Structure formats: C-alpha cells, structure tokens
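I am writing to request your help with a piece of structural work I have in hand. Thank you for your consideration; the sequence and its tokens are set out here:
=====
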Amino acid sequence: MTRQRIEAAIAVKQAILADQDLLDRLQAATEACVATFRRGGKVLFCGNGGSAADAQHLAAELSGRFYLDRPPLFAEAMHVNTSFLTAVANDYGYDHAFSRLTTAMGRPGDVLFLLSTSGNSRNVLAAAVAGKKAGCTLIAMTGRSGGELGELVDILINIPSRDTPRIQEGHMLLGHILCEDVERHLFGPSSQA
C-alpha cells in the first residue's frame, strides 16, 4: 500500500509537469502576486481543513521568508483569528466565515487565493464573490475539475487528480514554487538550485 501511494503521488507530479497550460497559469499567478506586492498590496488565503493548513503554510512562506533573508511580505491566511471565525460562524453561519473578512480586508489589486480540493466549498465560493466585488485578483487552487470555483476566478490552478491527499500535495508543490519565484523576482536569485 505504501509503494502504491508513493507511485500515485509521483504520477500526479508527472501529470503536472506534462501540463504546460497549468504551468503557464502558475506563472500567471506568480506574476499577479509580484505585481501586487510591488504596488504595496497584500495576498490573502482561505481554505478549510487541510486546505486551511496549506493556506496558512503558504502565507507564512511569503510573510516570513522562503529561501532569502529579506523584508516580510503582507500575506495572511484569513482563518487564523479564531475569535473572528467562530463569532461569524455563530452569528451569520459558516458560509460567511471568509466573505466577511474578504470584504473587510480586500482592496482593488490584492490577490485572494482560494483553496478547495473540490472547488465547491460554500464559504470559499462566498469569499470569491466578495473578493471579486472588492476588486481582488482571484486565484483558485483545486482538484481536476475546478468545481464551481473554477468558473469564478481569474486564474485556476487545478491539480490533475480527484484524490484529496494527492491534490493537497500538488497544491503545496506548486505553492512552494510560487513562493520561491515571488521571492526571487522581488529580492534576487534564490540561494538554492
């Protein structure tokens, strides 16, 4: 079973590598982030469960550092304020957990990453609608189909798999590449090969 899971993970990564259109969309996402940071904007992330953990991880790579010792970038995962999250879920319903914060934080030219392996998470879809109204560039990280989210966003990074763990592994692979490339464009060459 272990060998099969590793082979499945490798197969997804090979499918990503063979999909030039997907790699071009990743490059477009990188360029959107670079442009936003150069204008003094911010990059916001949202997702549920494992996707929340991935959103927080990627935000930390940008706001802290990746390879380079450099100034911090304004990147934040919108679920980290548990008092806000639980109050909104209690008072308005969990479907509004990210959309209210997107409305409060999102500004024209900001980037909003929406992580959902299915592309159909109600609260992430609501955040996309709020982000569009706020003038954010919307980037979705999903599984193969893109779900409903794929129809709402400016850039779709859809991992060629229907298996949630493989999709999330793909999100982290491409997310790390994006973070490294953003850092390199803004602050100089990476110290790693």
